[in-house]
Amino acid sequence: MKDLSIIIPENEWGRSEECGIFGIASQDSKELARDVYFGLFSLQHRGQESAGIAVSYNTNKVGYYKNLGLVSEVFHEEELKLLPNTNVAIGHVRYGFKGSSNVINAQPIVVYGRYGRLAIALNGSIVNADRIRKKMIEEGHTFQSSSDAEVVAALISKCATESVEQGIFDACQHLEGAFALLVLCGDKLIAVRDKYGLKPMVMGTKGGDIIFASESCGLDAVEAETLRDVEPAEMITVLKGRELVSRKFAVPNMRPCIFELVYLARSDSFLDNVSVYEARHKCGEILADLFKIDADIVSGVPDSAIVSGRGYAAVSGIPYVDALSKNRYVGRTFIQPTQSQRESSVKIKLNAFRANIRGKRLILIDDSIVRGTTSKKIISLLRASGAKEVHMLVASPIVKHPCYFGVDMGTKEGLIGGYRNEEQIRQIIGADTLKFISLELLKDACAGLNYCTGCFDGNYPICPKKFLNENDRLDFIDD
Ligand code: SF4
After folding, report:
1. pLDDT tens digits for 353-403?
2. Closest Cα to atom 8, ligand 1: which residue?
3. How far is the CA of 39 from the centre of ligand 1 (A)?
4. Probe residue for ligand 1, chosen from 46, 455, 460 as the CB with the greatest number of ligand atoms within 8 Å
């Protein structure tokens, strides 16, 4: 196998995707697609662009259905009934970046390769995917989509000389970046997590079935018991729904994404054994210790900052009230493909509880400020709805750098904190006060694991210099 790791310019980095994946393997052939449906439903917050489920049947056939939309829009009784009973099923919800909103990029990706049909569900960003794609095209391969998952599928097929497991194992040696991967092939389900553990994946069990999910809330949705997190660099093969084989494809170097705890994950999930709820509550408590503000009420921006808002209220003694009502049927504002879509979705997504805030001095807790679009609109909405003062406290540091590993933050120029300090940001968003928690205190609140903190301090597990050409701007270096 030739070395496929090559220098690539920043603008060619992979089609980043922050997604949710779910897979299940059983000794018995049954309606697993329905369990996957419930699992995906609970992971909907990780991606609203498309949803899909693939099942294996008749030894080496794969049945699948996927489409653009929410899980509840894509799957109805008739679509679930199209998918045969099976021993192995996987599913995917996708959030894709600008330009890739196309059903062809929906997952699972199903391909026909050296070991027959296989289906792949990928959460992450393979930073060298485009270069691998170009190299494989030169060698005669063809691709249908711009998805990193198809590149991974092609690479597995190319490597799979002995077995599909060995193909996945060898392919992982060539993949750089952040990924959690589920592969279905015949009666095998294979789960892989990148060597830094940047993307989360947890393993559980129910009635002897083995289940994998991006977050533990996915296991809860099907009433499965959590066994453990998939470890960094670990590849777990489930054979015939019962036999588990674990291998390490690289030396693990644990650096999970701290932004999962800040914003991405659901508050009722555990990631690498850390309670998201406790981490967020602790951040609120820390904010209350650090920033004592003379105010009447405190509130959190729904959903991710509600817990931190309650933490602030518990320590400060200032009453917690609901200041903002969220329309739960609109996708997450931050994860929409274009700026105009982001702005219009803020307007329909949040409304103020006028009776709760009229004439009040309000402390508003948010989990993070990325582009600043939402914060500015929320503050102006709260003032227009009668709030006398709006003091914003943020349960994470200033986001100063892009994410190269699948979290859609845009470029440094697009980040409100890319080149601005706290006071400059405060003036733009129109808050009476603006304060952020320090990175050290955030890490403490998140149980002190050795996290990736690249978007806050430029300290990425893979140095971007490795992927940038000499003349490219190194905007990850702190100013
Ligand atoms: S750069 Fe930020 S968002 Fe990206 S993986 Fe690291 S901590 Fe997570």
Report:
1. 999 999 999 999 999 999 998 899 999 999 999 999 999 999 999 999 999
2. 257
3. 24
4. 455
Domain C-terminal end among 254, 269, 293: 254
| 332 in the same domain as 227 | no
**Nearby residues of 447 by Cβ (< 8 Å), 6 or more positions away:** 273, 274, 279
Q: Which residues line ligand 1 (CB under 6 A)?
A: 198, 257-259, 403, 405, 407, 452-455
> And the tokens for 393?
């406290």
Find the length of the chain.
Answer: 479
Centre of ligand 1 from the C-alpha of residue 439, in Å: 13
Q: Is residue 74 a contact partner of residue 108, using CB atoms and an 8 Å limit?
A: no
Pocket test for ligand 1, best of 214, 258, 367 (most atoms within 8 A of CB): 258
Closest atom of ligand 1 relative to the 407 alpha carbon: 3
Ligand 1 geometric centre to CA of 27 (Å): 37
User: What's the N-to-C CA distance of the chain in angstroms?
Assistant: 41
**Residue 1 counted as domain residue:** no
What is the rounded CA–CA span in Å between residue 225 and residue 216? 9
Residue 445 lies in domain: 260-466
The CA distance from 53 to 34, in Å, is 10
Probe ligand 1: pick from 253, 403, 459, 476, max atoms within 8 Å of CB?
A: 403
Cα–Cα distance measured from residue 185 to residue 276, given in angstroms and rounded to the nearest whole number:
33
| 192-234 pLDDT tens trace | 999 999 999 999 999 999 999 999 999 999 999 999 999 999 9
Q: Determine whether 283 is an active site residue.
A: no
224 and 141 assigned to the same domain: yes
CA of 252 to the centre of ligand 1 (A): 18
Atom in ligand 1 nearest the alpha carbon of residue 456: 2
pLDDT digits (tens, 9 = 90+) for 414-456: 999 999 999 999 999 999 999 999 999 999 999 999 999 999 9
Rounded CA-CA distance 290/41 in Å is: 38
| Set 19, 159, 403, 446: catalytic member | 19
Q: 51 with 192, same domain?
A: yes
